[in-house]
Design a protein that fits this description.
The complex is a heterodimer of chains A (230) and B (716).
Chain A: E1 4-8, H1 12-24, E2 28-32, H2 35-44, E3 49-53, H3 62-73, E4 79-83, H4 86-95, E5 101-104, H5 109-129, E6 136-139, E7 142-145, E8 150-153, E9 156-158, H6 162-173, E10 179-180, H7 181-188, H8 194-211, E11 218-221, E12 225-228
Parallel strand pairs in A: 1-2, 1-3, 3-4, 4-5
Antiparallel strand pairs in A: 6-7, 7-8, 8-9, 10-12, 11-12
Helix pairs in contact in A: 2-3, 6-7, 6-8
Chain B: H1 5-12, H2 18-53, H3 57-62, E1 74-75, E2 77-78, E3 100-102, E4 107-110, E5 120-128, E6 131-139, E7 158-165, E8 168-175, E9 180-186, E10 196-208, E11 211-219, E12 226-234, E13 242-247, H4 251-254, E14 258-261, H5 265-274, E15 280-285, E16 290-294, H6 309-322, H7 348-352, E17 357-363, E18 368-379, E19 382-392, H8 394-443, H9 462-515, H10 520-547, H11 549-555, E20 559-562, H12 563-578, E21 584-586, E22 594-597, H13 599-616, E23 623-629, E24 635-642, H14 674-684, E25 688-693, E26 700-707
Parallel strand pairs in B: 1-14, 2-5, 21-23
Antiparallel strand pairs in B: 3-5, 4-13, 5-6, 6-11, 7-8, 7-12, 8-9, 9-10, 10-11, 12-13, 12-14, 15-16, 15-19, 17-18, 18-19, 20-22, 23-24, 24-26, 25-26
The chains are: A alpha/beta (230), B alpha+beta (716).
Chain lengths: 230, 716
């Protein structure tokens, strides 16, 4: 079966380029360049996955509105945000809009977008199949269901985006081992600066802190890297 | 020489000292006008007195203002002391000074040549109570007493008294057997009668080294209006002839004694009725003898205002100060006890010549100034005397002094208060200006960053305006700086979307071409485009890093780390692999060097410095890292490289955004953001960074990072 992807992007050339690339990967891509256009389309039929630009035309947060709307229609459709501004990353991660992942629009976007999409579809399938033989990582208070992309800390679910999830998994697989920035970037399928990795780590820590103010399991190693050490 | 604002205002407050000067000036004017008015008052009083007495012929007749002969007339003083007949001179003071000398010119007769030592005397007569007292201080080379066996009274040294009244002349004689109490004898009209003792005329004879003193007392009722005293001198105890006669009147020639003059009670009664307080009115006759006197120079005490304790204290404190300004005067003084036989004031002669005058003279060593108005006294167009009205200027002086005292007190108080207030004001203004200056100075760091704004001054004066102007200047400057930094951010953002578009297009092109088996050259072009796009993105990313750094730093978390070990790790795992061709020297300290910081950011900052050192170092030389913790716990990390130096005026500039002093082109892009990042990170860690050229003989630069260290004792 061919997955249907809705691509909402106001820059027509970027939209065309991304659509082309995704079609080449075998997806059925429906492109929209504004919020109303996308909304009316969603009213007719829901896509299997949505790629949303945060800023749509003049609307600084048009993508967020769209995300909320889509969530109201279906709680399970994976959503990937494309952001032009770094500062939006925090909002995507923090707003808990039900977005599953986010990517910055830069020269590497097309390198990672297909991988993200396929990863999300795998997750969707895993959730659907409802198998009990999931790959589970357990380490003391931490429990990670790799296929379902679910994270529990002291039995409480932690809602992470896909990027954050991968970084956490990378760290948690080998507790006590330092992962440097490059390793973490590779795991998260992003090419970003060291500082961006630090920002991701900070977001992950924040989410754990919210649940457990004493959370200290992600240790920094002289700024060279991080390790999981509860 | 630098005058602070404070000093200037303090000097200005000295202008307050002009007040006392004004006060003195005013006081002077007031005093002069008071004196003038007092003169006028005195003059009027004198004229009034004169008018009241003019043409009282009867009075003047009776009081013997006519036909005066100064040589013969006896003037009776009003004696101020009670006289005891004891042969001593003490009780005659102070009138004694007015005693008249009698010698050759009063010689009535003499056997042989008159010699001064043989006989001369001082004589003084005065009245007190109901008696006339007379003193004779006689110089006599031989004092001859009366022979006890002799009936003759005139065969020894003796005193002759001639009294003339309406009944005629009477002659008395006083002589002594020895020192002591004596009485007079009334001499008979005819020689055959015996002298009769007159017990009412008493006296004391007291011998002295140079002669004798004779004091006598005569009841006033025995006296008429004429009186003469004559001293007879006998020097030869055998012959007992009268050798010389000296007297107040020459009875041999004139046949009549001189007039007995004294102050006139009737006139004094008239004067008293005029009732001039605080003034002394005197009438002098043509011989300038005081013939009537009423009143006293003494003024009643001017009551000192009994102020409250405070003003009393102030007065007490200021008294030494007053002395410089006020005219001292005596309130306690003696009226000139004895009126001189002749009142010799400046102006009296003019008065007796028929002119008014007002004069003043000093008494008691200049402590008391007396003002005198003199007016002639007429009788039938003829001047028969003068009226002298005198008053001290004490009341004016006292008023004037009080005015001066008050002026000084008020001035001093005003000066203290005003001075204090002015001084406070000066301090306040000065402090405000200084605060403004300090704020302005500290608002901008030497490297041109704006740290603070200037606190708004709530006052609405010029200083506050200045503060506001400075503040708006600063904020404009701040905007300029922000704009410059913002511009980079905007540029980055605006370029990112088209760049992403290009990248996506090239990616697609790349993919499409792969399917069509393209020529190598086309694939090469595509790769070049891709590489250039990446380079551009790297540029944009570095701009973004720098411009969003401040915000990003706020999100970072600080932790305690050992910088000594961290630098080793970063060097080993980051910089040595990255710059394998460069020798980087670092000796980690043996003990922990703890800082509170974000390791990622610190590493980023140090990495920029190392990158900077690498790109500027002279090939073949080593780069040195030097970490030290000082006694004050501050940590300094030096990054030293040999190579080109930096101009001193660039040494602060290079830490600004988008400023680079690179002359050489380099492989990697440089926007002059690296050192800006270093500074921003260090600021965030309360640290500093600065650069200096090497001064140890080598050519190169040393970047010094200073960070606050964590004291070891705080760890536990």
């Amino acid at each position: 079966m061919t997955y249907r992807i809705a691509l909402v992007e106001d820059d027509s050339r970027l939209q065309a380029n991304y659509a082309q690339a995704l079609q080449r990967e075998g997806y059925d891509v429906a492109s929209y360049s504004s919020k109303p256009e996308a909304m009316s389309a969603f009213a007719r039929s829901l896509p299997d996955l949505a790629v949303l630009d945060v800023m749509l035309g003049e609307e600084m947060a048009g993508g967020f509105d769209l995300c909320q709307h889509l969530r109201s229609l279906s709680p399970v459709i994976p959503i990937i945000f494309l952001t032009a501004r770094n500062s939006d990353l925090d909002r995507v991660s923090g707003l808990r809009l039900g977005a599953w992942d986010y990517l910055t629009k830069d020269t590497t976007t097309l390198d990672f977008l297909p991988a993200r999409i396929s990863a999300l579809f795998r997750t969707v399938e895993a959730l659907r199949s409802n198998t009990t033989e999931n790959k589970i990582i357990r380490h003391k208070d931490l429990q990670i269901d790799e296929d379902r992309k679910e994270v529990y800390w002291k039995e409480h679910p932690i809602s992470l985006t896909l990027t954050e999830f991968w970084i956490l998994v990378c760290l948690a697989r080998r507790p006590g081992h330092v992962k440097n920035h490059e390793q973490l970037m590779e795991a998260a399928s992003v090419i970003v600066t060291n500082n961006a990795i630090a920002a991701h780590i900070r977001r992950i820590r924040d989410k754990f802190h919210e649940m457990d103010p004493d959370f200290k399991a992600i240790r920094s190693e002289y700024g060279m890297g991080y390790r999981w050490q509860p | 020489m630098r005058f602070s604002l404070r000093l200037k205002l303090a000097l200005l407050s000295l202008l307050l000292l002009l007040f006392p000067l004004l006060g003195m000036r005013l006081n002077n004017t007031l005093k002069n006008s008071l004196i003038t008015s007092q003169q006028e008052t005195l003059s009027l009083t004198a004229q009034a007195v004169s008018a009241a007495l003019t043409d009282r012929n009867d009075l003047f007749d009776r009081e013997q203002f006519h036909g005066l002969n100064q040589d013969r007339d006896l003037y009776l003083f009003q004696l101020s002391n009670i006289i005891r007949l004891d042969g001593q001179l003490d009780d005659w003071r102070p009138e004694l000074a007015e005693a008249e000398e009698f010698a050759r010119e009063h010689l009535i007769s003499s056997e042989g040549n008159y010699v001064l030592q043989s006989l001369n005397f001082r004589h003084l007569a005065g009245k007190q109570d109901k008696y006339l007292y007379a003193l004779f201080d006689v110089q006599d080379d031989y004092v001859i007493y009366r022979n006890k066996n002799s009936l003759r009274l005139d065969r020894s040294d003796h005193l002759q008294i001639v009294i003339e009244d309406y009944a005629g002349q009477r002659k008395y004689l006083m002589t002594a057997h020895e020192q002591g109490w004596i009485n007079a004898f009334l001499m008979p009209d005819v020689p055959i009668k015996f002298p009769v003792s007159e017990q009412r005329i008493q006296g004391v004879w007291n011998q002295t080294d140079s002669g004798y003193i004779l004091e006598i007392r005569i009841p006033l009722e025995l006296l008429g209006n004429k009186l003469a005293f004559t001293i007879a001198d006998v020097d030869d105890i055998e012959s007992r002839d009268i050798k010389a006669l000296i007297g107040t009147s020459n009875l041999k020639e004139d046949k009549a004694p001189g007039l007995l003059l004294t102050t006139s009670t009737p006139i004094e009664e008239i004067l008293k009725s005029l009732d001039r307080p605080y003034a002394r009115i005197r009438i002098v006759d043509r011989n300038q003898r005081v013939r009537a006197q009423v009143g006293s120079l003494r003024t009643t005490e001017i009551p000192q205002e009994q102020g409250d304790k405070l003003s009393g204290r102030i007065n007490e404190l200021m008294r030494p100060l007053y002395r410089f300004f006020i005219n001292p005067f005596l309130t306690e003084f003696k009226d000139q006890a004895s009126q001189p036989t002749e009142l010799d004031l400046k102006g009296i002669r003019e008065g007796l010549a028929g002119r008014h005058s007002v004069t003043s003279y000093l008494m008691e060593d200049g402590q008391v100034e007396v003002m005198a108005a003199i007016t002639p006294l007429y009788e039938q167009e003829q001047v028969i005397g003068a009226v002298v009205v005198e008053q001290t200027t004490n009341s004016i002086l006292s008023l004037s002094n009080r005015l001066i005292e008050e002026t000084i007190s008020l001035s001093v108080i005003a000066f203290l208060f005003g001075g204090c207030i002015l001084l406070l004001f000066a301090f306040r203004i000065s402090a405000r200006i200084r605060r403004l200056r300090n704020q302005a100075a500290s608002a901008i760091t030497p490297d041109g960053r704006i740290l603070n704004t200037i606190n708004k001054d709530s006052a609405s004066d010029e200083i506050a305006d200045l503060g506001r102007t400075l503040d708006s200047m600063l904020s404009q400057l701040q905007q300029q700086i922000e704009h410059r930094e913002q511009m980079a951010d905007n540029l980055e953002h605006e370029m990112r979307t088209p760049l992403a578009g290009i990248a996506a297009s090239v990616k697609n092109l790349h993919q499409e071409q792969l399917d069509t088996n393209p020529s190598d050259r086309i694939m090469e072009y595509i790769e070049w485009v891709e590489r250039d796009v990446q380079r551009m993105e790297e540029l944009l990313t570095s701009i973004r890093e720098a411009t969003t750094l401040k915000n990003a730093l706020l999100l970072d978390s600080m932790e305690l780390l050992d910088l000594g070990k961290a630098v080793s790790v970063w060097l080993e795992h980051g910089w040595r692999p990255a710059f394998s061709e460069v020798n980087i020297l670092y000796q980690a300290p043996e003990h922990e060097v703890l800082v509170n910081g974000d390791p990622v950011r610190l590493r980023q900052a140090l990495e920029k410095l190392v990158e900077n050192a690498v790109s500027f170092h002279t090939p073949g030389t080593a780069i040195e890292l030097l970490l030290e913790q000082h006694e004050d716990n501050n940590i300094s990390l030096l990054v030293i490289n040999q190579g080109p130096t930096i101009e001193p005026d660039m040494q602060q500039q290079i830490f600004h955004s988008m400023i680079s002093s690179r002359a050489v082109k380099d492989k990697s892009p440089h926007l002059g953001l690296g050192l800006y990042i270093v500074r921003t990170v260090l600021d965030h860690h309360d640290g500093r960074v600065n650069v200096q050229n090497l001064s140890d003989g080598r050519t190169g630069v040393v970047f010094t990072i200073t960070l606050p260290g964590v004291p070891k004792n705080e760890l536990t």
